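User: Fold this, then the next.

Assistant: Folding the first:
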Amino acid sequence: MKLIVSSVSGEPIYEQIKDQIRAAVLSGELAAGEALPSLRKLAKELRISVLTVTRAYNELADEGIVENIQGKGTFVMSQGTELMKRRARTRIQRIFDETCTAAKAADIPLLDLMAMLEASYKDQS
């Protein structure tokens, strides 16, 4: 797994790290039980503070995606992928609810809305 961070993106670096690790777990690039790079190693590779990496790892641990084991490292949790999928579904449902409310207010028919969703989905491939 190769992480890339940008200091000019406007998004905090620890958030960039978290997003990329989440994506790697969800895609299967990082498997359950697999170790993440050590705090110092990743900080050195990315040329950032160890505290920044620590914050990212700790927040991922709080979310149940990884587990910090004292003296051994940080590992992907076995239920991390399922937990992330459930959270993604919840977040997507919330977005759909907001989108449907806006579409109804703009008098956009359901078929048109579905076509818009399909086009957006295909553009992401």
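Now the next one, as you asked:
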Amino acid sequence: MSSKTPTPHPDAAPRGSAPPGPAGAAEGAPAPAPGTRPGLFRDASLSAVLAGFVAVVVSYSGPLVIVLAAASAGHLNTAQTSSWVWAISIGSGLTCIALSLRTKMPVITAWSTPGAALLVTSLGAYSYAEAIGAFIVTGLVITLVGLTGVFGWLMRQVPTAVVSAMLAGILFSFGTGVFTSLKTAPLIAGSVLVTYLLAKRWLPRYAVLVALAAGVAASAVSSRLDIHLDRMELAKPVLTTPEFSLASLVGIAVPMILATLASQNAPGMAVLTASGYEPKDRLLIGSTGLVSTALAPFGSHAINLAAITAAICTGPESHRDPKRRYVAGVSCGAFYLLIGAFGSTLVVLFAGLPKELVAAVAGVALLGALAGGLTGAVKEEKDREAALITFLATASGVTLFGIGSAFWGLLFGVIAHFVLTRWRGTPTEPAK
């Protein structure tokens, strides 16, 4: 590793395509020969596959509900709704697999959650064809922003401590969710937490898997599983001819672009960076933008980098060797494709899981990433105040102008950093 490359966190992955150093590799892990790339099946592990599965469970148990609410608000029929679920699932799956294999990083993508939330209140004001036109414009603009490198340049100006603090702020509510779930479902959440701790001691690579199994068993015992699968049928994509109107571009496309870039792609890049990788912004943002554009006529509102589910796959729980965590991205993509192929049919499987189970499993799966974010945030004394401001603003969950707290935490942290470190001027000699 060149002397210019910063040393990653002990649990972090190698940055980008740079050769991995000893700090980023698992203890005793052999380095790949120059000019070779490890095979996917050789690198595969149960823990990485499980990390991808947990990420998908979290996605379909939470953010997808917002998409379904938006479809209902827009008066979409069953076929259009199924096509929308198919499009965002297939888009997320293809980008997860392709980008993870291409970069050898656990690249996790998903649909824009703030974008879907925006559509809950705005989709009903336009025709579905106008919304499709706005989705296409959204994808094209995000592609342009990504391919030009403007977005990546802006992200590189952000101090590392601020990025780590934003990651910690994003994950904070998931960490506390393990314990708040104890109030409403003590058996389920308690089983997950206790089993995780015991497994972490003796079976660390499979701690999340064992905790998930214990949580499902506790849910069944307490009669909290509500899964009804009457039929299985493949999704049928519905192609809609777009219509373009100034009203839909202003009302849907503009806020969707801002929300997706600021509240999704920025935290998504930050998660990879905080985990020690060097994400290639042109490739990642440009690719997700292109896929969004291609699938927009079928209902996809926006495909982007994920943050919360990405943290599940980029941490040590995925695999102790950062070079092998990309398998989690491939696994996540494969599960996306499987579920997407059946449209909204398989969604009921995840909708039937108790929310306390999902919260508890996500919380324990994210403990490593949260610890890494907190460590990076306080590592440099000169950056601690700015990092603290970032953490508090992000963890507050505040939403302003339709943009989530992750962006505002990042913005306030950068401002604080410049005020506290860049604008001090030349120190004067103390008076004698």
